[in-house]
Amino acid sequence: MPITYEGMRLDAGLRLDLLVQDRIILEFKAVERMLPVYDAQLLTYLRLANKELGFLINFNVPLIKDGIRRLIL
């Protein structure tokens, strides 16, 4: 996904895991423990992409419902 900052398009782009219907960003992880840096990463993606809703999903949990975190800007 391209980045536009203060009206200027930057060459570096975002490497989103999944963008759903141009509205929701999904970021996937498979880690033993969720760290605050993963929340910060998703929040940065939300701000730069001008989106409001994102989900951080960790697949390294016994029940997938325990590995889903919803973030809203």
Describe the fold and architecture:
It is a single chain. By secondary structure, this protein is of the alpha+beta class. The protein has one domain (about 15-70). Helix content is about 20%, strand content about 40%. The protein contains 1 helix and 6 strands, in the order E-E-E-E-H-E-E. The chain has one helix spanning about 35-50; strands spanning about 1-5, 10-15, 20, 25-30, 55-60, 70. The strands form 2 sheets. Strands 3-4-5-6 form a 4-stranded mixed β-sheet, covered by helices on one side. Strand 3 and strand 4 form a beta hairpin. The chain is elongated, with a radius of gyration of 13 Å. The protein starts with a strand and ends with a strand.
Topology (SSEs and partners):
Elements: E1 2-5, E2 8-13, E3 18-20, E4 24-29, H1 36-49, E5 53-58, E6 68-72
Parallel strand pairs: 4-5
Antiparallel strand pairs: 1-2, 3-4, 5-6
Please provide a brief summary of the model.
By secondary structure, the chain is an alpha+beta fold. Helices cover 19% and strands 41% of the residues. It has one domain (16-72).
Characteristics:
alpha+beta, single chain, two-stranded antiparallel ribbon, 4-stranded mixed sheet, 41% strand, elongated
Please give the alpha-carbon distance between the first and last residues.
Answer: 19 Å
The rough form would be described as elongated
- Give the percentage of residues in beta strands: 35-45%
Unreliable spans are none
- Helicity, as a percent range: 10-25%
Strand neighbour order, sheet with most strands: 3-4-5-6
